[in-house]
Design a protein that fits this description.
Radius of gyration: 20 Å
Distance between the termini: 6 Å
Number of helices: 10
Largest sheet: 7 strands, mixed
Strand order of the largest sheet: 5-6-7-14-8-9-10
Number of domains: 2
CATH superfamily of the largest domain: Malate/L-lactate/L-sulpholactate dehydrogenase, NADPH binding domain
Order of helices and strands: EEEEHHHEEHEHEEEHEEEHEHHEH
Number of strands: 15
CATH topology of the largest domain: Ribosomal Protein S8, Chain: A, domain 1
Helix content: 25-40%
Shape: globular
Mean pLDDT: 91
């Protein structure tokens, strides 16, 4: 089944760099994905979900895990986080081919208390291990008010927000984070010691939609660099540095020994705070669980050698779920959460801006758009998916 050329998707350029905005309920929200302008082949969610699920079945996943993995993966495309969606499907398969991903893991709790647990992912797809662990946190929160789960022996888990949002339907606050392979130099260093180490927090509203913050602790996630590389574009200032620690706008800088920068970019703009946030994620996800941490976290590209003398097992994650009625009634909380959101939405704006954006607004707007008009893919991503299909005798 081929993609569709669908005009009129209501994505319009708002800057000379090709950044886009999207209209939701009469408001144009900026969408910070400057590579959007070249995406012109549209696929439906069902097409990408079905193709991804069938690929996971082909490598040996059972039906339930294949559905979970495909849902976790394509959720990123649906929400506009294209760097973490089907563009990474081939990467997961290459990890399986070199036996770094176990398609039939025996995921298990290895240690627990009424409110905490450690989960061993048995080298499974993080796309499967993470929802399992988040559900453990939710189940514990149902019993004792909050649940906290650290995970070891896992792999890349997609977008953190997808897992944190699992808590929303239970009137809970969800938290998800993960460490990642070392691409980031701490402030004042030339060594790559941390990953992009994202944090996601999902908080339910009442009549207002949920607050969903999902962000890397670097100025930009590595996936954004990969897309700029495909587009042969430079990075904005403050994303990367050379191997000598000098500022750079070369999207291929990491391949030349350079590093990503912590959130803030440099000391004068608060990079020490981004460094601290990334360190917290690494400690919660890796040191606490028994996973690898710092420069020993396994890389996502299958061709990159595994670090020597690794102190733990696989990649680590950390999840939390807090039952709102463990603090105050859910209804009362939601009334005040709605008031918080509406007050921030009504904040006075700087010249040229229509509205203050609450975390989660752009992704929700994109989800509305893409459910209606489909998901655009870069030609290079389509080529990769078609190559996968050829390998497994599947049609995109």
């Amino acid at each position: 089944m081929s993609g569709l050329l669908l005009p009129g998707t209501r994505l319009v350029p708002i800057t000379q760099k090709g950044e886009m905005s999207i209209r939701l309920f009469g408001i144009w929200y900026p969408v910070s994905i400057p590579y959007f302008c070249s995406m012109n082949i549209i696929y439906t969610y069902d097409q990408l979900f079905s193709f991804s699920k069938n690929i996971f079945l082909k490598i040996g996943c059972n039906e339930a895990d294949a559905i979970t993995a495909a849902g976790s993966l394509v959720a990123a495309d649906l929400r506009g986080v294209d760097s973490h969606g089907v563009a990474r499907l081939g990467g997961y398969i290459r990890l399986w081919e070199v036996q770094r991903v176990n398609a039939q893991p025996a995921i298990a709790i290895t240690h627990e208390t009424p409110s905490t647990a450690v989960v061993d992912g048995d080298r499974g797809l993080g796309l499967v291990v993470a929802p399992y662990a988040m559900q453990v946190a939710i189940d514990k929160a149902k019993q004792v008010g909050s649940g906290w789960v650290s995970v070891k022996n896992s792999n890349h888990f997609g977008i953190a927000g997808h897992h944190a949002m699992m808590a929303l339907q239970h009137d809970m606050i969800g938290i998800a984070m993960t460490n990642a392979s070392a691409l980031v130099a701490p402030t004042f260093s030339t060594e790559k010691l941390l990953g992009t180490n994202p944090i996601a927090v999902a908080i339910p509203g009442g009549t207002e939609p949920a607050f969903v913050a999902d962000f890397a602790t670097t100025t930009a996630a590595n996936g954004k660099l990969e897309i700029l590389q495909r587009k042969k574009m430079s990075t904005p200032n403050g994303w990367v540095q050379t191997k000598e620690g000098q500022p750079s706008v070369n999207a291929n800088e990491l391949k030349e020994g350079g590093a990503l920068l912590p959130l803030g970019g440099d000391r004068e703009h608060g990079s020490h705070k981004g460094y601290a946030l990334g360190a917290i994620v690494d400690i919660f996800s890796g040191v606490l669980s028994g996973a690898n941490y710092g420069p020993w976290v396994p890389p996502f590209p299958a061709y990159v050698p595994i670090p020597e003398n690794m102190p733990g097992e696989g990649i680590g994650h950390f999840f939390g779920a807090m039952r709102i009625d463990a603090f105050r009634t859910a209804d009362e909380f939601k009334v005040h959460m709605d008031k918080w959101i509406s007050r921030f939405r009504s904040a006075k704006t700087v010249a040229g801006e229509e509205k203050v954006i609450v975390p989660g607004d752009p992704e929700r707007a994109m989800e509305v758009e893409r459910k209606s008009n489909g998901i655009p893919l870069l030609q290079s991503v389509i080529d990769d998916l078609e190559a996968l299909g050829l390998k497994f005798n599947l049609t995109l």
